[in-house]
């Protein structure tokens, strides 16, 4: 299968390439602003042909589509940082809604008619209606951040584009995906990075944001398996929630990570007033995805946390080696 991945050099893009490489039988290509793998993904060099492009450059995208003739497209590119989106709303909207519109325009104008997976977010639902209420695909959208609002708009655009100009688009709404090689801009990776620095003696305490929020956390390696299944079995125009179906407080996640260390850890919380509007509790009903694809998570949360902490321990060890070498 000829597969094009936008945002290929990011966290989920890297894990998706790893998964598809293991599966075999695919010709992989990717689009990113810089057509190069970052150091944490350097082992993927040569596994996918990388192309530098801005999604706003519709003409460039049309040329790539004509050259590559993809049968599947996974649309991951966009602005992905919820907290920063409060400070950069215009850029967030341009990347998420404008970039998606430009991609669909390029596809419509090209001679290719691929199956497209649009990757959305469960944050578009906002807070759950009650303590025992799960978000299913029919839940009202109540985004609480510029990031979530821009993704909600792009999600709805993706639905509309299946009607006119008639593109073959399946949507998936992710909740929180975590795992090794994630940027420390995100909470779990940031916790693990700081704990590894404390273990190595380079940091005295861990600084966090609000730990009361509840999140549905899924290993990125499980998430990209859901992508592959939806490309094959998803229904055009439909949307599927992807998550475990139960939540953990960020306090309990941090406690679990600290439990994997043998070091005494001081925790200091520093709250961001801009994030009061962000969803505090986000619970997912994944039954539609499971019914359509038989997908189930394979990684238990504790294994994901261990793998994430071990990754950052490796990063710390490499830093120490460079200093002493």
From TrEMBL:
It comes from the Bacteria. InterPro entries: NAD(P)-bd_dom, NAD(P)-bd_dom_sf. Pfam families: GDP_Man_Dehyd. Residues 4-308 form the NAD(P)-binding domain. This is NAD-dependent dehydratase. It comes from Limnoglobus roseus.
């Amino acid at each position: 299968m000829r597969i094009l991945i936008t945002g290929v050099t990011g966290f989920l893009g890297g894990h998706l390439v790893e998964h598809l490489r293991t599966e075999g039988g695919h010709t992989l290509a990717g689009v990113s602003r810089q057509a190069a793998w970052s150091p944490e993904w350097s082992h993927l060099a040569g596994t996918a042909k990388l192309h530098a492009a801005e999604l706003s450059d519709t003409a460039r995208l049309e040329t790539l589509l004509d050259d590559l003739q993809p049968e599947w497209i996974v649309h991951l590119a966009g602005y992905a940082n919820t907290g920063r989106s409060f400070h950069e709303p215009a850029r967030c909207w341009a990347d998420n809604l404008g970039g998606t519109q430009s991609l669909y325009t390029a596809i419509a104008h090209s001679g290719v008619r691929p199956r497209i997976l649009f990757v959305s977010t469960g944050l578009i639902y906002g807070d759950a209606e009650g303590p025992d209420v799960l978000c299913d695909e029919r839940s009202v959208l109540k985004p609480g951040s510029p990031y979530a609002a821009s993704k909600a708009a792009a999600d709805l655009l993706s639905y509309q584009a299946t009607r006119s100009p008639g593109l073959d688009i399946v949507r998936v709404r992710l909740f929180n995906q975590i795992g090794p090689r994630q940027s420390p801009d995100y909470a779990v990776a940031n916790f693990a990075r700081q704990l590894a620095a404390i273990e190595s003696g380079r940091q005295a305490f861990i600084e966090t944001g609000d730990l009361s929020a509840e999140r549905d956390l899924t290993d990125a390696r499980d998430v990209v398996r859901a992508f592959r299944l939806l490309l094959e079995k998803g229904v055009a125009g439909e949307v599927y929630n992807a998550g475990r179906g139960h939540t953990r407080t960020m306090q309990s996640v941090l406690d679990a990570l600290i439990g994997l260390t043998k070091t005494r850890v001081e925790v200091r919380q520093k709250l961001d007033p801009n994030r009061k509007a962000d969803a505090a509790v986000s619970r997912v009903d994944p039954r539609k995805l499971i019914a359509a694809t038989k997908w189930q998570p394979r990684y238990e949360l504790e294994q994901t946390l261990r793998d994430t902490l071990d990754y950052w321990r490796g990063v710390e060890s490499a830093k120490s080696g460079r200093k002493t070498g």
